[in-house]
Amino acid sequence: MATRLTPDLCVIGAGSGGLSVAAAAAGFGVPVVLVERHAMGGDCLNTGCVPSKALLAAAKRAQAIRTAGTFGIAAGEPAVDFRAVMAHVRTVQASIAPNDSEERFTALGVTVIRAGARFVGADIVAAGETEIAARRFVIATGSSPALPPIAGLSDTPHLTTDTIWSLDVLPRHLAIIGGGPVGCELAQAFRRLGSAVTVLETARPLAGHAADCAEVALAALGREGVEIRSPVSVAAVRRVADGVEIEVEEAGRRFAFEASHLLVAAGRRPNVEGLGLDQAGIAHSPRGIQVDAGLRTTNRRVYAIGDVIGGAMFTHAAGWQAGLVVRSALFRLPVNYDPDIIPRVTFTDPEVAQVGLDEANAQSRHRGVRVVRVPFSASDRAEAERDTAGFLKVVTTARGRILGVEIVGRDAGEMIGAWALAVAQRANIRSFAALIAPYPTRAEIARRAAIAFFAPRLTGRLVKGIIRVLQGLG
After folding, report:
1. Residue 415 is assigned to a ligand binding site
2. Which structural domain, as residue segments, surrounds residue 307?
3. Is 258 marked as a binding-site residue?
4. How many CB atoms are located within 10 Å of the residue 259 CB?
5. For the segment 393-452, what is each residue's pLDDT rounded down to a tens digit?
6. CA-to-CA distance for 344 and 208, rounded, in angstroms?
7. Binding residue per annotation — 307?
8. 246-286 pLDDT tens trace
């Protein structure tokens, strides 16, 4: 006979979103059941954010050695021990894993069930030998790598963004299908560590960012030796003696080349299969579970958050959604999920960061849109570091309300935080005119952008006339 549990809340999926909901609810003394069929920590800890940023950190050190001569320091080509690099990645994961562990959540009072979950009714979930009849459910099952319909792919050895972390040998030549953020990040990392890298993209690389921002990052990858071919289509792949052969169509011609390893980084698909969603009356499609602005599904007892709803597939988006669900499910407070205020960062070097509306979307929604652009060459800190590539671009209404911000350059991901708050709070750019940034920091260009916005008014006839009147008063 199956064990029956009747908690206040059942969370399906122990990734960043699900863990955040479970921890918060348990903190309020609410009975919570957390169901996870795979590894605790989800994609972020095991195959996504954590290992990729650890790898990027190692690659950045290799590049610093390679380019040290710019600063008068004799260095040269670094000696990369790839096995040790991957050991570093796994050490980072191991140091973070206790925060997401079953032991920690059990200690918080959460009942953790390690099994697959499926709805067997509108208000009942089966997980292994347990039935869970909760007051509310939260689906946070994440996503998996999407595999494009390429001839021969299923019969050809290939890596995905989930499986690449099992490598212990540096690829001689890594071919990457997909020029999105993950594809470009890994392309630069492996190139810096010593692999030859070819990126194949069907559309514009880094298409999620404005073209002028993407161009700065892509130019940097090109200078470092990453070959980016776009637009191309991959017609077929096949196993060969030394790795894989990739057949490509480009500009009306077809050619083939060989690589030692093939990585498919063509996006991700929401994990909706096997959940019994139809049994629970939850509308869904291959693009994800349908939710309203309050993150409720078509079954009012059930919420869904994170990658499984499609859209912004970011750890921080799932975390923000988790907070909204806790407010709604536990406290009956109204919530409204606004994807426009979620920042996004591509962690290439230089980084590309964005929040809010880009210039084209802003102009489609507002009249009199203004755009202020300040290059990093205006930053003394950037000059001192010999790293002036990129710029800050602020999109505002005619009166200065900040609609969106794009930054491409070193530490763009760190700098976007203040602008994300400004967009969420509907702040005016005049707030940054009063910013006192430490000198010398890259943050100073935020104030420069605000000054540039108001400069035409400050040098206008009215202001000059006021000054003359005041001068006449002594």
Report:
1. no
2. 3-145+269-340
3. no
4. 23
5. 999 999 999 999 999 999 999 999 999 999 999 999 999 999 999 999 999 999 999 999
6. 9
7. yes
8. 999 999 999 999 999 999 999 999 999 999 999 999 999 99
Is 0.85 topped by the overall pTM? yes
Q: What is the mean pLDDT of residues 172-188?
A: 98
**Is 44 annotated as belonging to a binding site?**
no
Helix (H, G, I), strand (E, B) or coil at 452: helix
Q: How far apart are CA 372 and CA 302, in angstroms?
A: 43
Residue 143 annotated as binding site: yes
Tell me: is residue 316 an annotated ligand-binding position. Answer: yes
208 is known to lie in a ligand binding site = no
Helices 315-331 and 16-27 cross at an angle (nearest 10°) of 30
| The two structure tokens encoding residue 295 | 């993150």
Give the residue from 285, 309, 340 where a domain finishes. Answer: 340
The H helix count followed by the E strand count for the chain is 14, 26
Neighbour order of strands in the sheet with 370-375: 344-346, 351-356, 402-409, 391-396, 370-375
What is the count of structural domains for the chain? Answer: 3
What pLDDT is attached to residue 1? 57
Report which secondary-structure segment, H or E, holds 63.
helix 49-66
State whether 82 and 100 are in the same domain: yes
Q: Whole-angstrom Cα distance, residue 35 to residue 340?
A: 30
> Which tokens go with 444?
């100073």
pLDDT in tens, 373-386: 999 999 999 999 99
Q: Is 393 annotated as a binding residue?
A: no
